[in-house]
Automatic annotation (TrEMBL):
This is Periplasmic chaperone and peptidyl-prolyl cis-trans isomerase of outer membrane proteins SurA. It is an enzyme of class 5 (isomerase). Residues 165-268 form the PpiC domain. Keywords: Isomerase. The keyword Ribonucleoprotein does not apply. It comes from hydrothermal vent metagenome. It holds the Pfam family Rotamase. PANTHER family: PEPTIDYL-PROLYL CIS-TRANS ISOMERASE HP_0175-RELATED, PEPTIDYLPROLYL ISOMERASE. GO terms for molecular function: peptidyl-prolyl cis-trans isomerase activity. InterPro entries: PPIase_dom_sf, PPIase_PpiC, PPIase_PpiC_CS, PrsA_foldase, Trigger_fact/SurA_dom_sf. Transmembrane segments: none annotated. Its EC number is 5.2.1.8. SUPFAM superfamilies: FKBP-like, Triger factor/SurA peptide-binding domain-like.
Length: 311
């Protein structure tokens, strides 16, 4: 089944790619698959490449138009990294790729479908499938060569609260932003929180009182208290990235999330007891993701990227 393989490939790549770049959805552009969108160091990225990437990640059709630009940027990054790894002479054996293709075929067969027919329906050749599988394998090998045990331990120690199950009791003062908020609206909301922060720091008002007076969150009734939270789960990622680095009673600068602006403070830290060995793969994947981003940034500075079509 077409959808079955799309879902499998999406899941498969997510488990292999050490830097998962989340997509915001969009709609497939109706253009010839061979139309060249952009060339990266003289290697072309076509409309077919864009279509396949979105299909294999199971991006809903109604959301594909918005993510088109981001999809193309991701494909540029992937091409740059493919070139980088080739220059580094990083290789994987055909047997490794064969084993993963076999898994895909077996999954499709278990669903009662024919692998070749499904691949054809997706417009995906065996060669193309091999290429898609090869990049995360190559990157995994490179990352394992670069990232040392010492680096892992240092990273875990630096961001320990985010990995060891630590919980924090946080308060926030929240200013909402509408979807149609203008640049001026965004700046005004940020400035409002900066002014509130100054009042709190000067001792003119407590954080709890300021939350009751200014916050637009239901938690204002409790002085902005959102209770004990974990790094993953209860609050937006950008909120937690800042909150989990704060000391007790320290007040953050304004933090932007998809909902609006937040001023954050921490009133209690409940230390976790999850060791590095328990979360080694999680720490490794995050460090590898940061390494990928840094290498891509370096490669972009040296690359020749030429756009052939409006994105």
């Amino acid at each position: 089944m077409f959808r079955t393989l799309s879902l499998f490939i999406a899941t498969f790549f997510l488990s292999l790619l050490l830097c998962v770049t989340p997509l915001q959805a969009t709609a497939l552009k109706k253009a010839a698959p061979k139309e060249v969108i952009v060339s990266v160091n003289k290697n072309n990225i076509t409309q077919g490449d864009v279509d396949f990437f979105m299909l294999s990640r199971n991006i809903p059709a109604e959301q594909q138009a918005k993510s088109r630009k981001k999809t193309i940027e991701i494909l540029i990054d992937r091409r740059l990294m493919s070139d980088f790894l080739a220059k580094r002479k990083i290789t994987v054996s055909p047997k490794e790729i064969d084993a993963r293709i076999k898994r895909i075929h077996n999954l499709v067969r278990r669903k009662g479908d024919d692998p070749q027919k499904v691949l054809k329906k997706m417009g995906l050749s065996e060669k193309r499938l091999r290429e898609e599988i090869q990049l995360p394998l190559l990157w995994g090998r490179e990352a394992r060569e670069i990232i040392s045990d010492t680096q892992l331990r240092k990273y875990y120690k630096k961001y320990r609260r985010e990995f060891d199950g630590t919980k924090i009791r946080a308060k926030h003062i929240f200013i909402a932003l509408k979807k149609e908020a203008t640049k001026e609206d965004i700046q005004q909301a940020e400035q409002k929180l900066l002014d509130i922060r100054k009042k709190i720091e000067a001792g003119d008002i407590t954080f709890a009182m300021a939350a009751k007076q200014y916050s637009e969150s239901p938690s204002k009734k409790e002085g902005g208290d959102v209770g004990l939270i974990r790094y993953r789960g209860e609050m937006p990622k950008s909120f937690c990235l800042v909150a989990f680095q704060l000391k007790v009673n320290e007040i953050s600068q304004p933090v932007r999330t998809s909902f609006g602006w937040h001023l954050i403070t921490v009133t209690k830290i409940k230390k976790g007891d999850i060791s590095l060995e328990d979360v080694r793969s999680v720490v490794f994947n995050r460090l590898a993701a940061e390494l990928w981003d840094e290498l891509v940034k370096q490669q972009r500075k040296k690359a020749t990227i030429k756009w052939h079509s409006k994105n």
